[in-house]
User: Fold this.
Amino acid sequence: MKIHRSLVALASGTLLGSGALLATLPAYAAEPMPANYVAPAQRNAAIRYLIAVSYLTPEMGEELKAIDWEKLGTSIDPAKMTTEFNDAAKQNFDQVLQWTVDGTTMSKCNFESNYEAGVGTLLPQLAQMRQLARALRLDARINLKNGDADKAADRVMQMLRLGSHLQQDSWLISVLVGAAVQQPAFHEAVAVASSPNLSEAKRRELIAALQALDTPDPIHYQDAISVERRSIIAWLEKESAAPGAWQRIKPQLIEEGGPGSDLSLTDEEVRKQIGQLGSAYDAFAIAAKGTTSDADAAKFFERSQSGEWGTLSKMMMPGLEALRASERRYKEALAKAIAALQSPAGK
Assistant:
């Protein structure tokens, strides 16, 4: 493209007189895009994130993880910056940030997880995406410290979008990590809110981005439970289709020598319990809703542990109390961030 533009410029200049040579140049603009061309609206943010990760050195990663954000608080006073923060700030994250930010501008993010593997589904991207979020947070605070509150707000919104991208995988661990990426963004939003340099337009934009997350199911538990229900049951049905099902399934569910390692199920028992899993997941989805009372959620836990839906359901159901507690913390931090930005004192 650069060569083509140079030819156009040359052809229109004095060396080629009237520029008649232009008529002989290939009409590149009229030709169709290559077969593997992907339109901007269809591009996959996951590819950008993986490129960003390639620029993260082990030293960068260690320094990002070493920052104690609780100790740092919302401070932007250079004299109060911790040694770990200053060390990380010396690193050159330009390429990491460039590709990460590019990824956050896209709506689609698909790491093409192998859902058919059931409990063996691989999700190596989760840890790496947390590192990218840490880089965004670091840059947000650096910009805030340097007086560019609007750019800091942009970084906060990019953290929110990165977290939402993680949640598109729709495994429970994925949506939880997505929420874990967004909650530090809420804390940074509080820091940004206190800056006198934050423009009113950017303040409104950040408030809108945060309010968009304030939904009945902010961590997307229902989508995740639905995906796990379908993926895990399909995997179990495939594994149980031939004789010796429990011998194949057991090593992937129970650690050798751990609790339940002495459990033995016949092929018929395995198939029967797989048939009960759907009802267990349906009940779990109701119990995981924020609108479900703690008392009703506790009743579900008691039913699941009683063996009503079989031994497999006891193994497959995640910790309900931990999920509900995570949602409460998420909502509290989100509400605090929105309130800080809406408060006239924050201006």
